[in-house]
Write a structure and sequence with these properties.
Helix content is 14%, strand content 39%. By secondary structure, the protein is mainly β.
Length: 189
């Protein structure tokens, strides 16, 4: 028997990222867990859903560029801090070694094992949030998290966020090969 909970969003856990933008001439980072893949084939589109009140939003709208930095579990304290203080009053860029790739208004974080530079493609206005849809222009990845030239999640050790427990989580081990384990059922039909 299932219990009804109403129109509750339980799409958690979600990957936690540090969204970056240039605001008032300085790099700013905000912790966001409402991220998504919108187009898995080139050009790659991703989304950030951010409450309108965030300081970072202004920089994204003004410059049409942003970054998506994927922190490891080693950055849980800094990542959480970036979500609880405002860039209006705190220079959060001092927490990190900041670098730039090809986009001058998409600050990247050296300590994050994966960083993506994005060009704003469109903005979707929702009642309380803005959804920024960006095209991934370039991805920067630490060689230490690659296995055979591909990203190894066990080495990245990304943070996951769960709203119902309000906790950060880690990933466990792989449970099956995609587009392969289901073939066992295909043979039965």
């Amino acid at each position: 028997m299932k219990k009804t909970l109403g129109g509750v969003n339980l799409m958690y856990p979600m990957p936690t990222v540090l969204a970056g933008a240039m605001v008032d001439g300085k790099p700013n980072f905000n912790t966001i867990a409402h991220v998504g893949i919108l187009n898995a084939a080139p050009p790659h589109h991703i989304s950030l859903s951010m409450a309108r009140m965030h300081y970072t939003n202004r920089g994204i709208r003004e410059h049409g560029q942003f970054s998506v930095n994927i922190p490891s579990q080693d950055l849980v304290v800094e990542t959480d801090y970036c979500g609880i203080v405002s860039g209006k009053r705190t220079d959060k860029s001092k927490l990190f070694d900041v670098f730039f790739g090809t986009l001058p208004h998409a600050p990247l974080i050296s300590q994050c094992p994966i960083c993506m530079e994005c060009r704003l493609d469109q903005t979707v206005e929702l009642p309380t949030h803005e959804v920024f849809v960006g095209v991934v222009v370039e991805t920067h990845c630490d060689e230490t998290v690659l296995t055979g030239g591909k990203v190894d999640l066990a080495k990245v050790r990304p943070l996951l966020f769960d709203m119902s427990t309000r906790k950060y989580w880690s990933i466990g081990s792989a449970v099956g090969d995609a587009w392969k384990v289901g073939k066992a059922l295909k043979s039965r039909s």
